[in-house]
């Protein structure tokens, strides 16, 4: 592919250590699912390995297998849905599974209760997890296997979406009640609930582990989380973006006033222009819809608006104001160039999505380079 994803090792370490200071080092579980949020599992792990995190979260057993292949011997928590057919592989790889429904719990018991598990409670998201009303029955079923039960967990529904965290507080109350049921049944378990936003703004959610995803990569979960943090702490937190995405100019061409640019002839030059063609499109992960917004890339530190529709593997940008631009010039799709910057949130906003989706869709074949 003709673009490169640069990853700042210093930024990964910096963000990881911010959370270590905030929650305590032994509590921080970096979330490396979905190819480390599109950054590159192998590369991000390579940096984190020297920090020796006690826990790493992934979504799939297969991702856990890759981490074991890289030599990681700490705890791996598979936060995605556990399915019966993967139980033997998870236990062979010494991965911790999260069980959150009767069917998979029955399958685990039937398989002879192999490996280590966490029990998830659905406290308000209606996605994964047992209801509070099931807690006593589940605790009873698990009593003979207590040595295999590591923790109880839940997930918040809307911490990122609000500055009033009443709903999350109610979720916490339900989670605490479920934990009490297990404590009353004689279990001594670790508890975990927080992801980036709740780790940042709800100290009561930290318990024994915080599962930090998006902010490990240097992004705020949302602008509202940033506002909440400011209100709470009265200071800014210096998260450093890890990823830059760069490509190069492959063609520069004059386009005369009146000529069309791109598929559908949606853009017509109203003046003579100089247009640069870039070798990146929606296949590589640049969202097609971003071309409909006031979107731009950076060349020689200046904004160059996207003109016409984004193609499968190419896009065109206006460089009329930069007569020196030539083939081979570096182009920044995400990241800083000179005094300007395109953030993952900027590009996600142009594409009417969130940076989580944008980042995880960056094509895994784009070379990743640690800098
Ligand atoms: C169960 C679970 N925990 C933690 C996270 C990390 O969330 P964030 O990226 O907001 O930190 C996720 C992300 O989807 C998740 O599914």
Write a brief structural summary.
The chain has 371 residues and is α/β, with parallel strands linked by helices. The chain has helices at residues 9-23, 33-37, 41-49, 61-70, 87-92, 102-110, 135-142, 166-184, 196-201, 223-233, 344-350, 355-360; strands spanning 3-7, 28-30, 55-58, 75-78, 95-99, 116-120, 149-153, 190-192, 210-212, 243-248, 251-255, 260-261, 267-268, 273-278, 296-299, 302-307, 315-318, 330-337, 340-342, 368-370.
Compute the CA-based radius of gyration.
24 Å
Please identify the top-level CATH class of the largest domain: Alpha Beta
Euclidean distance between termini CA atoms: 19 Å
Strand content: 15-25%
Give the helix/strand class.
Answer: alpha/beta
CATH superfamily of the largest domain: Alanine racemase
Number of domains: 2
Structural shape: elongated
**Chemical compounds bound to the protein:** pyridoxal-5'-phosphate
Give average pLDDT, whole number.
98
What report would you give on this structure?
30% of the residues lie in helices and 23% in strands. It has two domains: 8-233, Alanine racemase (TIM Barrel, Alpha-Beta Barrel); 243-370, Lyase, Ornithine Decarboxylase, Chain A, domain 1 (Beta Barrel). It has helices at residues 9-23, 33-37, 41-49, 61-70, 87-92, 102-110, 135-142, 166-184, 196-201, 223-233, 344-350, 355-360; strands spanning 3-7, 28-30, 55-58, 75-78, 95-99, 116-120, 149-153, 190-192, 210-212, 243-248, 251-255, 260-261, 267-268, 273-278, 296-299, 302-307, 315-318, 330-337, 340-342, 368-370. Pyridoxal-5'-phosphate binds next to helix 9 and strand 9.
């Amino acid at each position: 592919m003709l673009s490169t994803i640069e990853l700042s090792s210093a930024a990964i370490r910096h963000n990881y250590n911010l959370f270590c200071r905030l929650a305590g080092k032994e509590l921080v579980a970096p979330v490396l699912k979905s190819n480390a949020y599109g950054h590159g599992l192998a590369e991000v792990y390579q940096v984190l390995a020297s920090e020796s995190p006690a826990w790493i979260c992934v979504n799939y057993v297969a991702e856990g297998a890759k981490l074991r292949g890289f030599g990681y011997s700490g705890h791996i928590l598979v936060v995605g849905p556990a399915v019966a057919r993967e139980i033997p592989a998870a236990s062979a790889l010494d991965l911790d599974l999260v069980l959150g429904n009767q069917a998979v719990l029955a399958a685990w018991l039937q398989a002879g209760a192999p490996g280590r598990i966490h029990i998830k409670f659905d406290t308000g998201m209606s996605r994964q997890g047992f209801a509070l009303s099931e807690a006593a029955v589940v605790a009873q079923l698990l009593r003979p296997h207590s040595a295999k039960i590591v923790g109880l967990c839940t997930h918040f529904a809307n911490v990122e979406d609000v500055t009033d965290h009443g709903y999350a507080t109610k979720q916490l109350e339900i989670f605490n009640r479920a934990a009490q049921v297990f404590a009353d049944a004689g279990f001594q378990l670790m508890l975990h609930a927080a992801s980036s936003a709740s780790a940042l703004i709800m100290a009561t959610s930290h318990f024994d582990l915080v599962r930090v995803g998006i902010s490990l990569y240097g992004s705020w979960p949302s602008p509202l989380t940033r506002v909440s943090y400011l209100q709470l702490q009265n200071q800014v937190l210096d998260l450093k973006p890890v990823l830059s995405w760069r490509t190069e100019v492959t063609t520069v061409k004059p386009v005369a006033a009146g000529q069309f640019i791109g598929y559908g002839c949606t853009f017509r030059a109203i003046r003579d222009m100089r247009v640069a063609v870039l070798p990146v499109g929606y296949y590589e992960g640049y969202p097609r819809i971003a071309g409909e917004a006031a979107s731009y890339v950076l060349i020689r530190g200046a904004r160059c608006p996207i003109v016409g529709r984004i193609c499968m593997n190419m896009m065109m940008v206006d460089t009329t104001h930069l007569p020196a631009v030539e083939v081979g010039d570096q182009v920044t799709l995400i990241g800083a160039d000179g005094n300007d910057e395109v953030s993952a949130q900027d590009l996600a906003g142009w594409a009417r999505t969130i940076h989580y989706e944008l980042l995880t869709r960056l094509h895994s074949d784009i070379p990743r380079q640690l800098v």
